[in-house]
Amino acid sequence: MSDGKTIAIIGAGPVGLAAAAHVLERGMSPVVLEAGPEAGHALRQWQHVQLFSPWEYNIDKAAARLLASTGWNSPDPQSYPTGGELLDRYLTPLATKTPLRDAVRTSSRVSAISRVGFDKAKTKGREQAPFEIRYQNGKGPEVLRADAVIDISGTWFSPNPAGGNGLPAIGEPERADHIAYGMPDVRGAGRSRYAGKTVAVLGAGHSAVGTLIDLVRLADEAPGTQAVWLLRGADPAKAFGGGRNDKLAARGELGTVFAALVTSGKIEVETEFGVTHLSASEGRLKISAGSCCGARSVVVDELIVSTGFRPDFSFLSELRLRLDPAIEAPVALAPLIDPNEHSCGTVRPHGARELSHDEPGFYLAGMKSYGRAPTFLMMTGYEQVRSIAADIAGDKAAAERVELVLPETGVCTRVGVESAGPAGCCGGPAKDEASACCAADETARKAGASGCGCS
């Protein structure tokens, strides 16, 4: 059933290239359309960040099989890569040194998708019509026809605004020169912008936590740097995570380090601060919470908005999507990932069945499939595309089968791609009956050493 099928994959990030590898293994032809100039363009925006999951959870199995034929050496499965290392040691070789190099089309931004000869309203014969994907590259408009489409374009370039009601704060577009989104490299590429400045960070997830930690480190190097944490909620402790209970050790340690910095007073904290207005104040930025009259406010030099991301469906308007009205994820997936009910530690593996729509042959996968839910893990994306490739190839048994065992995790509240790296415990989690907080510490103590300084 898979012979001759062309599968369009939107996005050449880690999950997009994994999808291409699985499609190739199934005897089909992947075409990967990447808006950026290189594979992993979104990942390059946060390559300074250290992942809180080790290499063993960041390499797709089909991709690894492709790489093995090139003489590629797999990294130490227990070490923690940065985004840059993930690019250099995995993603770039996968995109340039394997057969996928002939499948990836860079600088190719998708502008619209439909069915050949069918608008959204027309039904009879629709399922048999190929997809028409329109995209822009340096040569002008292009058209690709495909038997199936997997949209793995992510959400990095559509961040949530500063306003707590889902809308931009009043004055936010006008103050764009003082605002960054996501997780800028405050100690590297953005150092000149943030060193010696008062910088507010809005958000309570791992992006915000990691950025605040980096700002404290920058303050040690550049006196006058001050980090201000703007928190919409009332309890800062909710951002501290699961600590020693988190089976992704680096994530737990991130929260522990952050809690210590907050407690020490190195980070100024403003709780219950729902941003409503942004305005100029003598060349600086005034951030206000509440009504214009009597609103609380802080004045800073720069604002970093780390409030998560949302999907862009603008180029899918002619396809029949079934999306949850709140989460904006496929309706079968939404209850499994609803952040009001789940953390990333309670989201189970899922596949083609949960990711399909009323448009046969079209699937959302990767971070975009989670809509506004911030609970995505890269390893879950790899399982998604393995199942989808099997489904498109007609192997329904493999599509239904679960081939991923996730690590049990403690508390987590945001997308799992960022961490400041190990700082307390020096190894993975200890056994339940252990007398130490991590495996390496327990081993050291049994050998008569003093351990690794875990708190």
Description:
The chain has 455 residues and is α/β, with parallel strands linked by helices. It has 11 helices and 16 strands. The chain has helices spanning 14-25, 61-68, 83-96, 191-194, 206-221, 249-264, 334-337, 352-355, 378-393, 396-400, 439-446, and strands at residues 6-10, 29-33, 104-105, 109-115, 131-137, 140-146, 148-151, 179-181, 198-202, 226-230, 267-270, 275-281, 284-289, 296-300, 302-305, 362-364. The strands form 4 sheets. The chain has a 5-stranded parallel beta sheet with strand order 3-2-1-7-16, with helices on one face. A 5-stranded parallel beta sheet has the order 8-15-9-10-11. The protein has a 3-stranded antiparallel beta sheet with strand order 4-5-6, with no helix packed on it. Strand 1 (6-10), helix 1 (14-25) and strand 2 (29-33) form a beta-alpha-beta unit. Helix 1 crosses helix 2 (61-68) and helix 1 (14-25) packs parallel to helix 9 (378-393). It is globular. The chain starts with 5 loop residues before the first strand and ends in a 9-residue tail after the last helix.
Could you outline the blueprint of secondary structure elements for this entry?
Blueprint: E1 6-10, H1 14-25, E2 29-33, H2 61-68, H3 83-96, E3 104-105, E4 109-115, E5 131-137, E6 140-146, E7 148-151, E8 179-181, H4 191-194, E9 198-202, H5 206-221, E10 226-230, H6 249-264, E11 267-270, E12 275-281, E13 284-289, E14 296-300, E15 302-305, H7 334-337, H8 352-355, E16 362-364, H9 378-393, H10 396-400, H11 439-446
Parallel strand pairs: 1-2, 1-7, 2-3, 7-16, 8-15, 9-10, 9-15, 10-11
Antiparallel strand pairs: 4-5, 5-6, 12-13, 13-14
Helix pairs in contact: 1-2, 1-9, 5-6
